[in-house]
Write a structure and sequence with these properties.
Blueprint: H1 2-6, E1 13-16, H2 18-23, H3 25-40, E2 45-46, H4 57-61, H5 65-81, E3 86-89, H6 92-100, E4 110-113, H7 114-123, E5 138-141, H8 155-161, E6 167-168, H9 199-210, E7 214-217, H10 220-232, E8 240-243, H11 244-249
Parallel strand pairs: 1-2, 1-3, 3-4, 5-6, 5-7, 7-8
Helix pairs in contact: 7-8, 9-10
């Protein structure tokens, strides 16, 4: 953003990378994949780079309202400095808090989750995919809490997956009845409470029961928890966790 502003250019979109997209080695691959898609589709976008800071979502969910407001106001000030109007988020937590909770602090923006943006790019023909990329593969999708129940976005990720000629199967608990991966509400950052089973283990069992070869995710938290679940169940040879952006980027027609 800073480089483009210095050149007098205002990009149409800000791609909000998020903490996981910047620092988590596994989700850095998703960030790169989505950036490649944006480049391929000739989308006019930029990132904040080192000026990007946490949205404050973990602090908010953990109950530290003061820290949340301090972090959010810092982000809003940065947005306003660059006259940001349209934001694309890969993380549902970032998407939800910027879209639904920043307005109370004066931050009003058009915020999109990348699953909806990917659907738009495919439907409009901005990107072409190899429809036969997953022949003889069964794919399922795990609904992130803040994307599905939080914001009612259920169809976009499914339409992205079904853009391929694929054997798609729903999990037994899906859409508004989906089970959390176990990381939401700041649970990612604390030790597990007493119980008989971890939430991620229960959710991984749902995925295994579907008979899928690939479980698609659209959230860095969900990717971490389900990847851990697959390892925990020793199913790494038969089940793969891929992000929506990876499904598309690895199978785009040149």
């Amino acid at each position: 953003m800073a480089d483009l502003k210095a050149k007098g250019h205002q990009p149409e979109y800000l791609f909000w990378v998020g903490c996981a997209g910047a620092f988590d080695k596994r989700y850095q691959k998703v960030t790169r994949a989505f950036a490649q898609i944006l480049n391929k589709a000739n989308i006019d976008y930029a990132v904040l780079g080192t000026e990007e800071t946490c949205t404050g979502d973990p602090a908010k969910r953990a109950g530290n309202e003061m820290l949340f407001q301090m972090q959010a106001m810092q982000v809003i000030e940065t947005f306003n400095t660059y006259q940001v109007q349209k934001i694309i988020c890969t993380c549902p937590h970032c998407f939800n808090i910027i879209k639904n909770e920043y307005p109370e602090l004066g931050g009003h923006y058009e915020v999109m989750h990348y699953s909806s943006f990917l659907q738009h790019l495919i439907d409009s023909g901005r990107i072409k995919i190899k429809k036969d990329a997953f022949v003889n593969k069964k794919i399922t999708f795990h609904d992130p809490c803040y994307l599905g129940r939080g914001n009612g976005i259920y169809e976009a990720p499914r339409k992205v997956i079904n853009a391929f000629d694929v054997d798609y199967t729903e999990l037994k608990r899906a859409k508004s009845f989906s089970l959390c991966c176990g990381a939401g509400g700041a649970q990612m950052f604390k030790e597990a409470e007493k119980g008989n089973k971890e939430v991620f283990e229960e959710r991984t069992e749902d995925v295994l029961a579907s008979g899928a070869d690939i479980v698609a995710t659209a959230c860095p938290f969900c990717m971490t928890m389900l990847s851990d679940g697959i390892k925990y169940k020793n199913k790494e040879d038969s089940l793969v966790n891929m992000d929506l952006a990876e499904l598309i980027e690895q199978n785009m027609d040149t």
